[in-house]
Amino acid sequence: MASRAANTRRAASRPRNDENAAPSQATMRSKTSMSHLGPAQKVAVASSSVVLGAGGKKPVAVKAGAKRTALGGVVTNVVREEMNDDAKKPLKPAGKSINAEARQPLASRQNNAQPTRPIAAIPHRAKSSTSVFPALEPSSTAMESEGDLISEMDVDSRRAEAQMTMLTVDEDSLEDESEEEEMEDEDDEDWLRMPEEEMIRAQDQLEMIRATFKDDVELFDTTMVAEYADEIFAHMEELEESVMPNPRYMDFQTEIEWTMRTTLIDWLLQVHLRYHMLPETLWIAVNLVDRFLSVRVVSLVKLQLVGVTAMFIAAKYEEILAPSVEEFVYMTENGYTKDEILKGERIILQTLDFTVSSYCSPYSWVRRISKADDYDVQTRTLSKFLMEVTLLDHRFLRCKPSMIAAVGMYLARKMLGGDWNEAFIFYSNFTEAQLIPGASLLCERLVEPDFESVYVYKKYSSKKFLRASTFARDWAQTNNVSTWY
Hints:
The protein is mostly helical. The chain has helices at 2-13, 25-30, 39-52, 79-88, 106-111, 140-144, 146-185, 196-212, 229-242, 258-274, 279-293, 303-318, 325-331, 338-351, 362-369, 377-391, 401-415, 422-428, 432-446, 455-459, 468-478, and strands at residues 67-68, 74-75. It contains 21 helices and two strands. The relative contact order is 0.06. This is Cyclin.
């Protein structure tokens, strides 16, 4: 019994290596209490104890992803620590795949997909080289971007083809426009067209007279501003080109004709004289009517409204005391209201882009030409009558105001027995050969049977205007135009 008790004591004193055996009370007392620690701290303490092992011996190996607790159990929730350990390890070669996609967010998995190509990629032009001379050998960068350059060259070639197509269309349109211009040049109604030889002869005569004629500058006549006269009239020659109406605007009018325009101008002459307005007011009003009808289609009912509104605009521009809107309503015998005239004023000015002052009436040119005959009263009065006759004839829409003044002065000189000398050519810038066609048209108008019924004839048949209309009509009936040549 004694030996058996000794063996029992020796066996109890030896440590036991059974894994599943419950720990002794002494061992439990030696263990530090972990009740005051959190879960993460408990796991750390347990892991440290497992690594050291009991008695300093190496513990039994456990499966990957599991660790032993202090009580001998297995902890499997250590994925975060292993991921942290893997993050510290160097990257593996590209050949081996890392199974980390299970923990990646959805956005990162979508980004791994191949990007889709846009529907229409915008080509980018290659930047021009900073060097002036090109390199002899292509650089590696240029070789790498060769594919991009080829695509850009394709885009550039398409653009070049499109531009060539546009240029071809433009050339065709230019050819059509040139043909239209040639057709306009070949217009039978263009009586201003002269043979080329006569044009060259007239230009040579003008240049010779300008070089030899001496202008007597009247420094003491401040009204003629002799120091600035040449520059002023040169500027007026540029302006009169910009305010010329279309001489064939009646071709696209649907309800009115040239005879209706003549009736309108004749009525405007009556209104102009009735309210004693300035001569320039009449010419500006007629120019506004013709320019407006050149760009807008007007019905027959509104034709008189266009005329009275144009006179209203011209009077506001030129007169010191212009008639009121109510007076213009009275002129039309209440045919149009005040609101209609004011609305018409806005439409005309907007259509013509408020271009009123650019027009220079023939009276400005007559004042300059009259210097050649020392401002003869009879010649000037007769020329004013002849110029107002041109307002009634649509064929003179082709003439510039400077030429209308020259034609009126030339025909007045002819009727009074004068000649067209160098002084008249110098101040008018027109030779006799250039003025004869217009003068012949005026004579044809004077001898018409119904000419005495127009208001301009009645106006200048009074003593105030030296009965210029009666004298001109009698002279035109007794003299043949063919004898002028």
